[in-house]
Amino acid sequence: MTVDSLNMALTRIKEKSNKISKIFLAIFFTFIFGNVFFLKWVKRDFPEFEWLSGVVLVIAFSYGGWFLWKLSKIKKVNLPHCPECNSVIIETQIPVVIASGNCTCCGKSIVDKSV
Ligand SMILES: [Zn+2]
């Protein structure tokens, strides 16, 4: 494992999470703000369908849950593993591994600093 490959993994995760986060936030806030206007309109014209607003909120928050699951999956797939103990090196540990050259789990030297 080299410092470059660790930095690349970090960059890849950041790029992918940024992209999916932007799409998520756009859709999520469209749901939430759209629901405010929807509720106003429903309350005025169809008060018997007010519960639909709750359904929209449930959908929005389920979508939020799905997003968090997807984000964790992206990280899991792209995070590097320690070649010695095979544990996942999480995002926040990567700078520590780069600086020390050792695995944060087993402590063995895993970064090839000669490259
Ligand atoms: Zn290890």
Report the mean per-residue pLDDT as an integer: 89
What is the approximate shape? rod-shaped
Name the hetero compounds present. Answer: zinc ion
Structural class: mainly alpha
Which value, in Å, is the CA radius of gyration? Answer: 22 Å
Sheet with the most strands, sense and barrel status: none
Count of DSSP-assigned helices: 3
Tally of strands: 0
Helix content: 55-70%
Order of helices and strands: HHH
Give the percentage of residues in beta strands: under 5%
- Intertermini distance: 9 Å
Tell me about this structure.
This protein is mainly α. It has a domain at 3-78. Helices cover 68% and strands 0% of the residues. It has helices spanning 3-45, 51-78, 94-100. Helix 1 packs antiparallel against helix 2. The mean pLDDT is 89. The protein binds zinc ion. Zinc ion (ZN) is lined by residues 82, 84-85, 87, 103, 105-106, 108. Zinc ion binds next to loops.
